[in-house]
Amino acid sequence: MAVVEGWTGRYVEDFTVGDIYRHGLGRTITDVDNAWFTMLTLNTNQMHFNQHYAERSSFGQLLVNSAFTLALVAGMSVSDISQNAMANLGWTDIELPNPVFGGDTLYAESLVTDVRESKSRPNVGIVSVKTRGLNQRGEIVIRFNRTAMVYRRDAPQDKGLFPETNEPF
User: Fold this and answer.
1) Which residue of 65, 78, 152, 159 is surrounded by the most CB atoms within 10 Å?
2) Rounded CA gap, 86 and 92, in Å?
3) CA separation, residue 136 to residues 41, 65, 87, 106, 160 (Å)
4) Going by DSSP bridges, is the β-strand pair 105-117/124-134 parallel, antiparallel, or unpaired?
């Protein structure tokens, strides 16, 4: 019986400048997601948790916390971009061109903008991407640049982690 490994992400050798990854999963944001994240991060702006207050704004409804939007879209990209990252090195040029509301479904895609060797660590390379999040109408709700140290395929850090058992299937 063959053991078939699941998707384990890309290594630095797998990235090519100009490639675009459409990340596989969309995610519908609920008002509960927004309220929990807002409270968890101690964000006291009432636009995220006070419906009565938000109804008086120009949006007329609660806004999804922009830090949640960033975290969600970044998370959506992990399986393609940083599943095998050693560390994130930077996030720049974060823009929020359109609002996000409870009930919106977000999707994400990333464009590889640079791939290079690390000058200080032989077991990793540096990968830079532009990532953007789109709502169900195709409107861009967030975009940002991200740079990460990604392991080389032969790096030992992610090998041999799955535990073995003496009990056969």
Assistant:
1) 65
2) 19
3) 26, 18, 31, 6, 40
4) antiparallel
